[in-house]
Amino acid sequence: MIKYSFLLFIALSLPSKSQFLQDTIRFLALGDSYTIGQSVDNANRWPNQFIDSLSELGFVIEKNAILATTGWTTGNLLQALEESSLKKEYNLVAILIGVNNFYQNQPIETFRSELSEIIDFALTLTNKDTTGILLITIPDYGYTPFGENQQEIISKKTNTYNQIKDSTAKEFNIPLINITPISRNGIIDPDLVANDGLHPSKKQYGLWVDMIIEKLTNDFETRIKVVKKEGDYVLSQFGKEFKLSSNNEGFCEVYDLNGRIIKRLNSNTRFNLSSGVFFLRITIGRQTYFDKVVVRI
């Protein structure tokens, strides 16, 4: 009976409520040379490595698009967005922009305001869903052969602009992926830098992707928690809370990919999962909720 219910769930394609990743991915990457993958093959751009990794994890990829050009500032990207014919069909949009703003000595307040405008535009593409927006920090090119002679100045500007990204991410309640420390190994590990002596290599982009996927799929110690709060039972998932029902006991069942139940937990219980793909069935009173969780450790 349990196995039959599991198979019925698959056939009906009940929606996932993961905070960041849905089962079917429609992805758009926005940015500059770091997004377009200057000096690496198309397949080795970080957005394409990212999508390949998600596909290997079992996600269905419906769309993978890039809007980026080497040398673009926030103003260039904003103009390109306004002139584009992008449809409101994406559920995951990544933004990595800003290095050319300070390389061209543009006013810092211009960066701050235009970054917010870019996020606002991205939100229209995800139908105002903030869980579908990722903001990525600026890598530090002071740790490349091109920039090492001005490392202190470049690193200071990188920090300043990334601090703006951090505050902006908090303002919009979107995740910030801090890949900058990875880029700061470029001198001690030359394989992290492309042959042009400036941009990231395939290897560095791959490390970015590992960090991004970890953030999206395994950055939360507690996967599911059901707890009574002010008279109501609340499902707490990935840091968000959902009011489900009142005055009824709740429980959560965890299934593996073969439909076997591997855990059953009652209210006020926390648990973690090992690496793998799992399906959850959360029941509160007469209400049942389903979710898919991908865990990488």
Please specify the SSE layout and strand pairing.
Elements: H1 2-12, E1 24-31, H2 33-36, H3 46-56, E2 60-68, H4 74-83, E3 92-96, H5 99-103, H6 108-125, E4 133-136, H7 151-172, E5 176-177, H8 180-183, H9 202-218, E6 224-229, E7 232-237, E8 240-246, E9 250-255, E10 261-266, E11 269-271, E12 276-284, E13 287-295
Parallel strand pairs: 1-2, 1-3, 3-4, 4-5
Antiparallel strand pairs: 6-7, 6-11, 7-8, 9-10, 9-12, 12-13
Helix pairs in contact: 3-9, 4-6, 6-7
Gist?
The protein has helices spanning 2-12, 33-36, 46-56, 74-83, 99-103, 108-125, 151-172, 180-183, 202-218; strands at 24-31, 60-68, 92-96, 133-136, 176-177, 224-229, 232-237, 240-246, 250-255, 261-266, 269-271, 276-284, 287-295.
Structural class: alpha/beta
The best one-word shape is globular
Lateral arrangement of strands in the main beta sheet: 2-1-3-4-5
End-to-end separation: 32 Å
- How helical, in percent, are the residues? 25-40%
In DSSP terms (H or I, runs of 4 or more residues), the helix count works out at: 9
Question: Quick one: CATH class of the largest domain?
Answer: Alpha Beta
The parts where pLDDT drops under 50 for at least 5 residues are 1-19, 219-226, 237-248
CATH topology of the largest domain: Rossmann fold
Taking Cα atoms only, what radius of gyration do you get, to the nearest Å? 21 Å
Element order: H for helix, E for strand = HEHHEHEHHEHEHHEEEEEEEE
Average per-residue pLDDT, rounded, comes to: 80
Oligomer: single chain
User: How many domains would you count in the coordinates?
Assistant: 2
CATH architectural group of the largest domain = 3-Layer(aba) Sandwich
Task: Supply the CATH superfamily name of the largest domain.
Answer: SGNH hydrolase
Q: Tell me the β content.
A: 25-35%
Tell me about the biggest sheet? 5 strands, parallel
